Batch of 2 targets.
Target 1
Amino acid sequence: TLLVERGDLGSGTSCSSTKLIHGGVRYLRQGHLALVKEALHERTWFLNAAPDLVHRLSLILPCKGRLEKAYYRMGLGLYDRFAGLDPKDRTRSVSPAEISTLAPGLPPTWKSGGLVYMDGQFDDARMLMRLAFCITSSGGSLSTYTDLTGFGRVRDGLRTVTLRDRITGETSELRANVVINATGPFTDELRRLEVPGAQPQVAVSRGIHLVLDPSLLGGETAVILPHTEDGRVLFAIPWRGKILYGTTDTSMPGPEQDPIAGADEVAHLLQHSEQIFGRSVSAEMIHGLFAGLRPLAAAPGRQATASISRDARVEVSTQGLVSIYGGKWTTCRSMAERAVDQALAVGKLPFRPARTHELKLAGPLPEVPDRADRLTRDQVAWFVQEERARTLDDVLTRRTGLSLLDAKAAVAIAPVCARWMADFLDWSDHETQRQVTAYQERMRRQWEPLNR
């Protein structure tokens, strides 16, 4: 088994999430009950399979009145039943005074108090590294910074694929029993590479997050605003000593390799910040900003992306390409099971019942600094030598998250980090400076919406 990744692991979508392993309260209101039940089942699996990376998270749902509180209490009661929670973990009512204790930064305007319910939180980048470790320790291989540039004919049950190393430029050909297309927002791109003119099946949506000063909440309990005028849910979540605040849902004409937040999306979050935090968010309170793309299983342009189900679909082309798209982080295990079962059938390989539901995601957990000035040469050595980091952005954005936690500090440490990486990757002085310049330019573009 070979996993081919166009860029770094997680550089497309997987490291730009809200960092939640959850059933999705919003999907209850939309009537997607089967999806919620599946996601809550998978949440339990994640909590048991990787307890060092996934933990329980309490969320406050503040309410404006008794009727609203009763409405959400009924929905969250169903949520808890789907999850099979113990009584101690089920949704409970809280008074305004209790909200002030759990999140001192919140405004004293929620006169009916609210509800506290449980979901899961994780580090998406670390989870991705753990899954990569599980692949290689089970006999699989990884090839990052590699493009799949072409499909050959199917002969004797095998098909040829052409690969190109994006760093060296070298090309190679491999023969495979079956190819699974799990490229998220770029699913249609690979489908058209195999069958030119293939009709698009994936709608692309952009979501952004702000990383804010922790004083805005003042506690370790998250807050959910369950409904905005555009149908989105907003979260304010304690995360690595900061507050992760988002998200938006903006329909896109197609995928982007490095999505940038729109100024209108930033304005949308800032507009609603007073509703959650009771005060406006100043520029000094914003430590980070990032954008990501959602691959939604629906033809583009047919409906508002916020209303599209997060269900996953598996499709097999006439040439035998197995494509899986849609879904979300929480359901990745069950999605993979469906895709692999289909691939075994297409490749006429021996069928084996999936056992991933029994899998424990054990593996190394390196020390990851929460501040740029605590990044060490030894940590960078690990990211390069053990976790395939190949660019400055790989280390500062995905291995450590420093670009998200404190963008200015990450930019300041970039030249030092690049010199360390140069020692491990044998970069020339020219390449070292190119890496620093490319990273600084990327961060400038990421922050541009805040400067308008």
Note: The chain has a mean pLDDT of 93.
Target 2
Amino acid sequence: MVEETLKIEEYDVPESLYYTKDHEWLRLEGENCVIGVTDYAQKTLHEVVFVDLPERGRKVSKAESLGTVESVKAVSDYFAPVSGEIIEVNSILSTKPDLINKSPYGEGWIAIIKPSNLEVELKDLMDSKEYYQYLKSLIEK
């Protein structure tokens, strides 16, 4: 699958995703939302060594901390871009956390949320062009 991607400096911003200001991404898959951390987030963290995954079945609110991503450099929380229920987690990250570095938008996904208020909450997320401008403003500081 070839996906259109915006690029700002060394950071990839796939056009089909939605983004948060905390550098999480969301991909719509049917009625569910696949989530992960952005290329900018993983490159800022550097080498990811551990991912604290949320529990399946957990009900979450938008902007709630789902867990942490730990690297050799830092520990960073990641947050739910939308409210709903965690219906699947990427358990491969337990043994291969570096997939977040190697494939942040592919094999490095973190969880799948069955959203409870998607139509409303999706409006609060950025599309790729908005996230690109947001990253640009951060980089230029």
Note: The chain has a mean pLDDT of 96.
